[in-house]
Amino acid sequence: MSDTILAQDHGNWVEITLNRPDRLNSFNDEMHLALRAAIERARDEGKRAILLTGAGRGFCAGQDLGDRDPRKMDGPPDLGNTVRTFYAPLVRLIRSLNFPVICAVNGVAAGAGANIALACDMVLAAESAKFIQSFAKVGLIPDTGGSWHLPRLLGEARAKGLAFTAQPLPAKQAEEWGLIWKAVPDDQLMDEARALAEQFANGPTLGYGMTKQCIQAAAVNTLEDHLELEADAMKTCGESADYAEGVAAFLEKRAPQFRGE
């Protein structure tokens, strides 16, 4: 595996670390491919949760602009191809996983780095962390799902404000606005994030996956369609071993032993 990504196996979950700290973990093509491969490996090995974080003092500064510098190229870069080849597939992969993906934002999350975090299911951030939609500084639009997630999470006014001004949003304010799940003291971030990953990986993963897909589908479904989706999901969950175990454990007043199936 490329050393631009570190993957630590915790049994039924994996911790993946972006590892270009000298470049604030900004993406080059190698790190893109390595991250996607690490996530796909976790999926294919039957892991039940992923924790994504960054090495060093930042989470991710987005695209390494040194790799997309028009001055070093024969013509302008095809950034649409960059999105289609690298960023869009990564967002689709994270959103398609039928288990929780937790993001621990340990420092600045800028540009595509901020929006990769927003593609995850739960975002915890160190109180010193900041989210920056930095695209306007170089004449771009919020990609990596940013222009989709921001208005849905924050509303049009705040989405446009963050996108147009590229103003850093402190983690605590991001929590208050509903952009992320929680801001925590810096020295508690990884302990809390790992405990959450462990909790989810030992939980009713089938139900988590169904919950994830239902919530994500709500953005485009009509109420009528969504009620049908819920009924289908409940049928699947109700026939699962996890539901039978959960009910038995509740009635027997003991902790459930979920298998994620």
UniProtKB/TrEMBL annotation:
GO MF annotation list: catalytic activity
Listed GO biological process terms: phenylacetate catabolic process
Name of one Pfam family that matches: ECH_1
Signal sequence coordinates: none
InterPro entries linked: ClpP/crotonase-like_dom_sf, Enoyl-CoA_hydra/iso, Enoyl-CoA_hydra_C, PaaB1
Entries under NCBIfam families matching the protein: PaaB1
Family affiliation: Belongs to the enoyl-CoA hydratase/isomerase family.
Protein name: Enoyl-CoA hydratase
Organism: Jhaorihella thermophila
